[in-house]
């Protein structure tokens, strides 16, 4: 079996290194008239009837792409670079941002970083292949290679966003996009920012968007080194946009003897020294006391 260090490398998760330094969600400190439009809900949010969702989706997709098309066509700073009327991958993003708004693929982190990674990778690989005098005959190879690399990079950074696949292929194979060069990256991000603004306005009328800005897991803990060299995160609060984060903020301090962790797996692990909970599981003080009694029995059995 591989060593612990090798296993950590083989199962690398960038969030385990980044999340302790991501600031806690502070939307609850804003006035509700503002925080609502940023996805925060004081009480648990439920989706409205399907008909309301369909109407919201229609207006979201229409207004989002209409806004992008208008800016691309009539804003001199952008139209001067002759971008596509509407970048195709933004149409695919619209399906996620205005319809499947609760999926991880539609959340801001995935969409923003996914598009940015794909655009940068597509332009980079295209520029590299353009050094060849036979570029017109091998640009399809550039499209395949750039998409493969960008997909792996999105997976490594937990920012998978399927429409990014169209973004990276366009950057490497479409003549009008290739002619834009590095301008394609900011033009694309301007388009996505406009769609994001429309999504916050339209989706939050009757629904909730985003569900989270960075991750549904805990963020903001301070790492401290344990004697065995393992890094442990204090449970100081999550990045969730709902009111249920408050119980998680005190979870790691309710029973000093028991170190509490969260992870992405759908399983509960209890040993004599620690407990691991799925990130979405909430535990009350009474439940935690019961778990502590079970831990004490496990510890006594080993003595």
From TrEMBL:
InterPro entries noted in UniProt: HPP (IPR007065), TM_HPP (IPR058581)
Ranges annotated as spanning the membrane: 51-73, 85-105, 111-129, 141-160, 180-202
Residues in HPP transmembrane region domain copies: 49-210
Ranges where the record places region Disordered: 222-250
Pfam families membership: TM_HPP
Protein keywords: Membrane, Transmembrane, Transmembrane helix
Compositionally biased spans, kind Basic and acidic residues: 225-250
The keyword tRNA processing appears for this protein: no
Domain of life from the UniProt record: Eukaryota
Classification via PANTHER family: TRANSMEMBRANE PROTEIN DDB_G0269096-RELATED
Protein name per UniProt: HPP transmembrane region domain-containing protein
Organism: Cryoendolithus antarcticus
């Amino acid at each position: 079996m591989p060593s612990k260090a090798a296993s950590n490398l083989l199962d690398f998760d960038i969030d385990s290194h980044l999340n302790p330094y991501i600031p806690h969600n502070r939307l609850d400190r804003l006035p509700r008239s503002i925080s609502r439009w940023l996805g925060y809900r004081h009480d648990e949010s439920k989706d409205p009837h399907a008909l309301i969702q369909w109407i919201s989706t229609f207006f979201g997709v229409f207004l989002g792409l209409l806004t992008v098309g208008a800016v691309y066509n009539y804003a001199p700073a952008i139209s001067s670079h002759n971008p596509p009327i509407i970048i195709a991958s933004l149409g695919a993003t619209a399906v996620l941002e205005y319809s499947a708004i609760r999926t991880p693929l539609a959340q801001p982190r995935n969409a923003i970083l996914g598009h940015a990674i794909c655009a940068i990778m597509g332009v980079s690989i295209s520029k590299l292949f353009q050094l060849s005098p036979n570029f017109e005959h091998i640009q399809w190879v550039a499209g395949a290679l750039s998409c493969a690399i960008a997909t792996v990079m999105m997976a490594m950074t937990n920012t998978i966003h399927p429409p990014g696949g169209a973004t990276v292929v366009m950057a490497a194979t479409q003549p009008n996009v290739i002619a834009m060069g590095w301008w394609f990256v900011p033009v694309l991000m301007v388009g996505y920012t406009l769609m994001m603004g429309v999504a916050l306005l339209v989706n939050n009328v009757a629904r909730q968007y985003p569900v989270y800005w960075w991750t549904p897991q805990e963020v903001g803990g301070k790492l401290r080194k344990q004697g065995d060299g393992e890094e442990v995160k204090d449970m100081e609060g999550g990045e969730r946009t709902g009111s249920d984060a408050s119980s998680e903020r005190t979870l790691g301090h309710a029973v000093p003897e028991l170190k509490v962790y969260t992870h992405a797996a759908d399983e509960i692990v209890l040993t004599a020294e620690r407990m691991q909970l799925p990130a979405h599981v909430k535990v009350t003080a009474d439940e935690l006391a019961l778990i502590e009694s079970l831990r004490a029995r496990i510890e006594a059995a080993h003595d």
